[in-house]
Write a structure and sequence with these properties.
By secondary structure, this protein is an alpha/beta fold. About 25% of the residues lie in helices and about 30% in strands. It is globular. The protein starts with a strand and ends with a strand.
């Protein structure tokens, strides 16, 4: 099978079909999305070597659970050990022995086939086409913020970053009873947000609230924005960090202490939440797709995805 493999250099390779472990399913990938995390891995983030990619939709080709075969699925990307306290509590996202699709110890979705534990698979509703379902994983990451913090009515919420994740976070938050503002630097992306009914403004025109914001969500994909997010939070406000970057970051710890700002990390979400939201709100992500490219042109697709102003680039085997 063809696959995009990273070992210090991104290469298109031919590999054997993956061997199917016990209790796992073989999935034929029909679409996969390039995420900023994938790009950061090629810059050294996570120290991963293998087949990249964790956002996907596909069709089950082999599984011990016969009813799964032929079904369209997306997959939870964290595969836990099944025995530790986190797995037994139903949340393998922080299993200390987990593998993570295309990120930690497990080949990913930029290939014709992948394997995942059957328990990780979620059926895609018929009403959702592949180019919508492939957004389930990043939308779940946006939804996961609400597992950690829920803004109250009238709370001022600021999203920093108008990239793929920032726009998805705005989709999750725009129906909540809060005052939402998205700040970015790309006119086309801000226009996209405005068309979705989201208040959005350029960083050049942004004038912060004097008293600060109850909740600041950092989704810039940069290492510099954390310090800015802390500055913009009101005393006893909250800052949620979504960016995963290869570089290190700095923040004025005294400001955190003096303002008593709560710093919250937020990573993967639950696909059930994302699939439900897609159906309930009849979400259409066509406005977020910049290109759909053959896997054979995956290296060029990575170059495109890394360019400023580009939204989601999808790969189709």
């Amino acid at each position: 099978m063809r696959a995009l493999y990273y070992d210090g250099q991104l290469r298109l390779v031919n590999k054997q079909l993956p061997v199917l472990p016990v209790d796992e399913a073989l999935v034929r990938v029909t679409a996969a999305g390039i995420c900023n995390t994938d790009i950061e891995i090629t810059h050294g983030y996570a120290g991963f070597k293998g087949i990249l990619g964790h956002e996907f939709v596909g069709i089950v080709e082999q599984a011990s659970t016969r009813s799964l075969i032929g079904k369209r699925v997306v997959g939870e990307i964290n595969a836990g050990c099944g025995k530790c306290y986190k797995c037994l509590s139903g949340d393998p996202r922080h299993c200390p022995r987990r593998t993570v699709l295309g990120i930690v110890g497990r080949d990913g979705a930029f290939a014709e086939y992948l394997t995942l534990p059957e328990v990780n698979l979620r059926l895609v509703p018929d009403k959702l086409d592949d180019l919508t379902a492939v957004f389930a994983e990043p939308l779940a990451a946006a939804c996961s913020i609400l597992e950690r913090v829920k803004p109250g009515e009238g709370d001022k919420v600021l999203i920093l970053g108008d990239g793929k994740l920032g726009l998805l976070v705005a989709e999750v938050f725009r129906f909540l009873p809060c005052e939402l503002l998205l700040v970015g630097k790309h006119a086309s992306k801000l226009a996209t947000a405005a068309k979705r009914g989201i208040d959005a403004i350029s960083i050049e025109d942004f004038v912060p609230e004097d008293e600060g914001y109850d909740l600041v969500i950092e989704a810039t994909g940069t290492t510099e924005a954390l310090a800015k997010a802390v500055q913009l939070a009101k005393p006893r406000g909250k800052v949620v960090l979504k960016s995963t970057c290869a570089g290190s970051t700095t923040v004025d710890m005294s400001e955190l202490v003096v303002k008593e700002v709560e710093l919250i990390g937020s990573r993967c979400g639950r696909l059930d939440d994302a699939l439900r939201l897609m159906q309930e709100r009849h979400l259409d992500f066509s406005h977020m797709i910049s290109e759909v490219v053959s896997l054979a042109k995956g290296i060029e697709a990575f170059e495109t995805a890394a360019k400023p102003g580009v939204l989601k680039v999808l790969l189709r085997p």
